[in-house]
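Throughout our pipeline, every protein is held as a single compact record rather than as scattered files. This encoding replaces a full spatial description with a residue-level series of whole-number codes. The remainder of this section carries one protein's record, kept here as part of the documentation.
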Amino acid sequence: MASFFFKPARPKTPLELVKATRYALFAFESKVPEDSKVLEEAEKNLAAIKQALVGDVETDPNPEQIAQIVLEVCKDDFLEVLVQKLPMLSWDARKDSAQIWSVLLRQKIGSSECCLEYLENHLHLLDLLVICYQSKDAALNAGSMLRECARYPTLVKYLLESSSFDLFFDYVELPNFDIASDSFSTLKELLTRHEAVVSEYLSAHYVKFFGLYERLLYSKNYVTRRLSLKCLFVSE
């Protein structure tokens, strides 16, 4: 394994970057000293993938390389491993991961939205992101990734109907203000972004939803009450 990770070599191709990152993330199990080199390699590769996707002050992203990354990501379980290991990554690597997620979801290869289609076939990854709100380290990054998902009606439909959706009504009352506020922002996006999807959901789950929402309207937390009322008016 050591020779795979650490031998000096030419810069990795996009295909090699995705494979090496996925392999390193999969091999990384916990924040213990023996895993530190594996984590370092994974985070270095994530930074390289982000640079390939968005460029930097000196170089613009290469459309051909972006297409290669997108196709390789969608052939692999890269996104699943990325979400699973998100809470274990460093601050910079979590930030890179959220940016990678956002860029990948918006990419098209021809007329195909490959990463969106991948998520539509692996919807449990959205549940894993919702659960990441329980990690004080990964919560805000997971929130950013979920709000990116909220751009797409198929993903919103799944999230609204998933049992994990109920967790937002707990998250918005967490004592950690940043996490509570971020989770409310995500909840608001899910409830206001796609009117037809939300209307269908409310028609089928009216009693359950307003039972949950009523908790927020009568919360002991003034900010929660105020934001809940504001969200209702926005939804009208």
User: Anything to note?
Assistant: The radius of gyration is 19 Å.
